[in-house]
């Protein structure tokens, strides 16, 4: 008797109850939804409300630029080669980056200027970015994508990252998810090879009750089972922290933790954390926006001795001089 081995992708396609492995970005709404959520979160009580409004304007401009942008798709041979080696299908770290990303950057800067209310510091930054040559801009892009912190200009990085996001979100939105390979490395986007920013437990349809991590570059979402570290895959020492629990009785503290729409999921094995949001408790939750807006929770986790599993592409810390 000949035994037939069925590949995992084929099994998933045969089983109508299978958990969807990926959620590809919705091209028509991805950045618009992010912009709307950032504005929602930029209330008076948020310590970085002004910055969130600026980033909302940036996300809105990303949506307008994306609607008119189309990057060259990878060849069939390239897709099959990456599948064969279990590599990201359109890797961000490549020597063949579409130079049009720099045009996207300048369009984003145009949009920010058109939105008005530029501070003197922001005006100076925009002017400086416009004067950088292609080599300098590409060097910054390389440093951001490779997470070479000492080389990153923290003021310019959010705008450069935003331009790269438009390019890779465009690619991800047009890729057939059946072509996306399974990777051996946990915590890495199988589309572009970048790190996720946060995760979301979704509601509705085929995604009901399942947790997805959202890539910080191409916005592809990858299913990861709950109570499992999204950074190292460990199931040991997983704990959750929320904002706003003080000296109240333990019962009240636990009730507040259960009802919180956003938590930090920490892992004792690798010493990192990544935020997780629950759409059933905040339907408009958007992983990228909510992660950016919850800086207080980052401070809480830092005080507890945990480090972020990956930086937020729109919030880069200043590096000490001796680290540069």
Key features of this structure:
single chain, 324 residues, FdhE-like fold, eight-stranded mixed sheet, Protein FdhE homolog
Describe the structure.
This protein has helices at 8-14, 30-41, 49-66, 76-84, 100-115, 120-131, 134-146, 157-174, 250-259, 287-293, 295-303, and strands at residues 22-23, 196-201, 211-215, 221-223, 238-241, 262-267, 272-278, 307-308. The protein has 324 residues and is of the alpha+beta class. It has two domains: 26-179, FdhE-like domain (FdhE-like fold), CATH 3.90.1670; 196-308, FdhE-like domain (FdhE-like fold), CATH 3.90.1670. Strands 1, 2, 3, 4, 5, 6, 7 and 8 form an eight-stranded mixed sheet that branches. β3 and β4 (221-223) form a beta hairpin. α2 (30-41) runs antiparallel to α3, α3 (49-66) crosses α5 and α5 (100-115) packs across α8. The radius of gyration is 20 Å and the shape is globular. 36% of the residues are buried. The model is unreliable at 1-14 (pLDDT under 50). Necessary for formate dehydrogenase activity. GO terms for molecular function: ferric iron binding. Pfam families: FdhE_C (PF24860), FdhE_central (PF24859), FdhE_N (PF04216).
Entry summary:
By secondary structure, the protein is of the alpha+beta class. It is built from eleven helices and eight strands. Necessary for formate dehydrogenase activity.
Class by alpha and beta content: alpha+beta
Q: N-to-C terminal Cα separation, in Å?
A: 64 Å
Are there runs of 5+ residues with pLDDT below 50, and where? 1-14
Q: Would you identify the CATH architecture of the largest domain?
A: Alpha-Beta Complex
Query: Can you tell me the CATH topology of the largest domain?
Result: FdhE-like fold
Annotation field: number of helices:
11
Overall 3D shape: globular
